[in-house]
Amino acid sequence: MSGGEIIVILLVFLLLFGADAIPGIARTVGKGMREFKKATSEIQREITESTSEIRKDVDKITSEVEKEARAVKKQVEDNYSG
Predict the structure, then answer these.
(1) Alpha carbon distances (Å) from 26 to 2, 4, 21, 37, 47
(2) Number of neighbouring beta carbons within 10 Å of residue 61
């Protein structure tokens, strides 16, 4: 938004609500923004924790598959060499 647009919006608020109501409205908007940021942070934290748990599970499964693949490879090599 440009400076002119902000001034027009402020004038409309002033005309609609009066000078006395603007501080209360600003506090309400500020409180709403803080709550929104808090909720956003909480959701982001939960997603990070969930993906971390999934990543651990995938790493464990990958490790087990690699271990089994090495064992099969060794058996095949032993069968063909011996």
Answers:
(1) 20, 19, 9, 16, 31
(2) 10
Evaluate whether 45 touches 54 at the Cβ level (below 8 Å). Answer: no
For residue 80, CA distances in Å to 49, 71, 72, 75 come to 47, 14, 12, 9
* Type of residue at 41: S
* 29-81 pLDDT, tens digit each: 899 999 999 999 999 999 999 999 999 999 999 999 999 999 999 999 888 88
- For residues 62 and 54, the answer to whether their CB atoms sit within 8 Å is no
What residue has token string 């790493």? 59
In three-state secondary structure terms, 26 is: helix
Are the C-beta atoms of residues 25 and 17 closer than 8 Å to each other?
yes
